[in-house]
Amino acid sequence: MEGIGCGNVQHWHPNIYLMGSPSSCHSNSDAIDSPKADSSSSGTHAIVVLNGEQHQDIEVFKKAWNTAILRVAVDGGTNFIFDKLGKENQALPHLITGDFDSCRSDVADFFKSKGVSFHHTPNQDETDFFKCLQIVDSELKSKNMQVDRILVFGAFGHRLDHMFSNVNALIKVKAFTPSPIYLIGNHQQAFLLDSGEHHIYISDLDVIKWCGLVPVSEPVVSKTTGLKWNLDGETMEYGALISTSNEVIENHITINCDGRLLWMMGD
C-alpha cells in the first residue's frame, strides 16, 4: 500500500458550471471563462457533442462551443447544434462524424452546404464516440494543435449501455491521446483517473451535491482527502466496496490510486 499509485501526478479542473443546471450556472455566458468557474479555463479545449441528454443552459453551452479550437458533432448530436444554435450566425462544426443513422437529412444537407467536413465511420465494431475520438486525435496532431482538455457534451442520457460504452471509450483512448477528457451531462460530470496521484479542484462547494469513485476494471487500492467519507488504503471492487453517494467537503480533493477509477459528481 505504501506509495500506492506512484509516478503519475495529474491536476483536474472540472468546470462545474458546464453541467447545465440553472442552479449551477451562476454567471451564465461568462461561466466557462470565469476564474471562479474554473482556474484553468484560460487554456484551450476541443468540444465533442454526442446524441445524449443535452445542456439546459444554452448560453453556457454556446460559450463552450464558440471558444473551442476544434468543434466536432457526432451523428445525432448534430441535430442539437442545428436546432439550438440556429442556422445562421453560429460557429460551424469543423467536423461531423458518425455512421449517420440519427442525423436528420435536413441537418446534414445544411452543414454540407456550408462546407463542413463529414467523416463517415461505418465500422460497427466500434462506437461512434470512440471513432470520433480517433478522428479528433488525428486532426489535432495533423494540425499541430494542443488542447488542455476535451469537453464531451451529451455523454449521458436514457441508455445505460451507451453510458458504459462511453466509459469504455475513455479507457481505450488512453492508448493514443494524453488529453484529459471530461464527460458532461445535465447535472453530472465524470472523468477517468489513471493509476497515480490526482488533484481535483472544485471552485464552488455549494454546487456539488454528490460524488462517487468506482473502479472500472480490476480492484483498486486508493487513499483520498477532501471527501466526507475518505478512503484510507481500502480496496474497491465490484461485489465489495465502492464509493457512491459521497460528498465533497473541501475545494481541493486528492486521490491516490493503484488502478483506474471513474470520478463522478453532480449538482
What does this protein structure show overall?
With 267 residues, this protein is α/β, with parallel strands linked by helices. 21% of the residues lie in helices and 29% in strands. The chain is built from 5 helices and 15 strands. The protein has helices spanning 58-66, 77-85, 105-113, 128-142, 160-172; strands at residues 9-12, 45-49, 70-74, 95-98, 117-120, 149-153, 181-185, 188-193, 196-201, 210-215, 220-225, 232-236, 243-246, 252-257, 261-266. The protein has a 10-stranded mixed β-sheet with strand order 5-4-3-2-6-7-8-15-10-13, sandwiched between helices. Strands 1-9-14-11-12 form a 5-stranded mixed β-sheet, with no helix packed on it. Helix 3 links the parallel strand 4 (95-98) and strand 5 (117-120). The longest helix is centred in the middle third of the chain and has 15 residues, at 128-142. It is globular, with a radius of gyration of 18 Å. The protein starts with 8 loop residues before the first strand and ends with a strand.
Task: Round the mean pLDDT to the nearest integer and report it.
Answer: 87
Multimeric status of the protein:
single chain
Report strand %.
Answer: 25-35%
* Distance, first to last CA: 33 Å
Secondary-structure-based class equals alpha/beta
Looking at the structure, what is the overall shape?
Answer: globular
